[in-house]
Amino acid sequence: MTKIINSRRELFELINRGDIKIKFGLGTILLALGGTFVDAYDFGSIGIGVIQLTRVFHLTAFLVGTLTSAMAFGALIGALYGGRLIDRIGRYEMFLIDLILFVIGAIGAALSINFPMLLLFRFLIGLGVGIDFPAALSLIAEYSSLKSRGRNVNLWQAMWYIATVIIYTIGFLMYLNYSYFGLNIWRWVIGLGAVPAAIIIVLRFKYMKESPLWLFARGSSRDIENFLRSIGYNDIIVNQNLENVMSFGEFKKLFKKEYRKRTLLSTTISVEESLQYFAVGFYLPVILDAIFAGNAVLAVLGTALVNISGIIGGTWQSLLTQKIGVRRLTIIGLIPCFIILLVLGFIGKYLPVIVTAVLLSLFIFFHSSGPGAQGMTMATLSFPPNIRGVGTGFVQGMLRIGSILGFYLLPLLKSYVGLYNALLYLSIAPLISLIVVLLIKWDPIFAGVSVDQETFE
Fold this sequence. Notes:
Elements lengths: L2 E3 L2 H10 L8 H7 L1 H23 L4 H28 L2 H20 L4 H29 L5 H28 L1 H4 L3 H7 L2 H14 L4 H7 L2 H10 L5 E3 L18 H25 L2 H8 L4 H29 L1 H22 L5 H17 L1 H12 L2 H33 L1 H8 L1 H12 L10 H4 L4
Parallel strand pairs: 1-2
C-alpha cells in the first residue's frame, strides 16, 4: 500500500516508530568511527615520537607543549567551523574531506625536515580530526534506533583505545629494532597513519550514505525519495512541497534557554576529560619513561599494556549506556579518577613501579568508562539534527581547548614542581566536573524521541 508523506515530521516519526528500518550493523559503525581510529593513532604517534623529537629538535618544555598541541589547535578550528558545515552541507560530504587532510598531514609530518614544517602538517591533521568527530558521531546517532543510539555512539571510546594500543605496540616493535630505525622511529609511526586513513576513505566512499535524519530534515523531496528507494522502500511517496527547516547550524541556538544547560554540561565534561587525558593518558610514555629511568622500550611497552584497560572500559560503558545513562556513567568514572590522582600526587613517589602501573591502568579504565566517553556522547545525543553538527562541533572545540591546556600543563608543571605534584594539581579538574554533573540533572538517554523532534520546534 502506497504511503504519502506530507511533512518532514512524518518522516522522523517513521524512523522513531520503526516503520522504516535502516541496516546499520557493527561494520558500518566501525567504518564511521574510522576517523576516530586515525585520530587516536595520530595523537599516539606523536606521544611515542615526543621522546625522540625532544632530542632531535632540542625542544624545551614549552616547545614540547607547542608540538603536541598543534594538532589540537587544528582540531579546535576544524570543529568550530566544520560543525556548521556538517549541519548545512551534510555529514557525508564532510566525512570524506577530513580523511584527505589526515593523509596529507601524516605524510607531510613524517617527511618534515624542521620543526615549523612538522607543526604545519600536525595542524592539518588536526583540522581533519575536528571535522571528523562531529560528523562521525552525528551520523552514527542518526542511523541508530533510539534503543541502541547511546550504545552505538559510545563505541567511539573503545575504538580510540584500540588504536592507541596498536600504535604503541608498533612503537614498541620499532624500538626493539632500534638499530634499523634509529632516530627515525617518529617518522615511521607518524607516516604510517596515512595508510588506515587512505583505506577508510575508499571504504566510506563505497559503502556509506548520508544520514537519513539529516536528509529528511534538510534534503529535497527528490533526494529523500531516492534514498528511500535505495533502501528498499518503493511504496513511500514524498510530497514535492515539503516545508523547509531554516535554522540549520545556528550557533546561537546552543545558548538559548532550552539548550543552555545541555551545552554547559557536555562542555564541562569534555573540557575536563580532555585536560586529564592529555595531561596523563597522552603523556604516559613520558611518565613511564621517568619511572623506568629513561628506558624508552619499557616506557612504550608499558603504555601499550596500560591502555588495554581503556579498551575494556570503553567497551564496558558502551554496553551499559542504555541502562545506566550518560550522566551516571560520568559520575561513576569521575570519582575514582579524582581519587587516583590524589593518591599518585601524595604518595606516588613512594610506591613500587608495579603499583604505579596498576593505578595508571585503573585511571585509564575509569576515564574511558566515565568522562572520557561521555562528554562527546552527551553532546551528540543532546541536540536535534538541525544543530547536532554545530553542537558537537562546539563541544569538540571546547574539548580541544582542554587538550591544549593538558598538553602544556603537564610538561610545564612537571618541570617546575615535579611529576607527582603536577598530578596532584590536576586532580582539581575531575572534582570541578563532578560538581557540575551533580548539579545539572540532564541525560539524553532518558529524554525519548523529543530530542530529534525538536528540529521542528
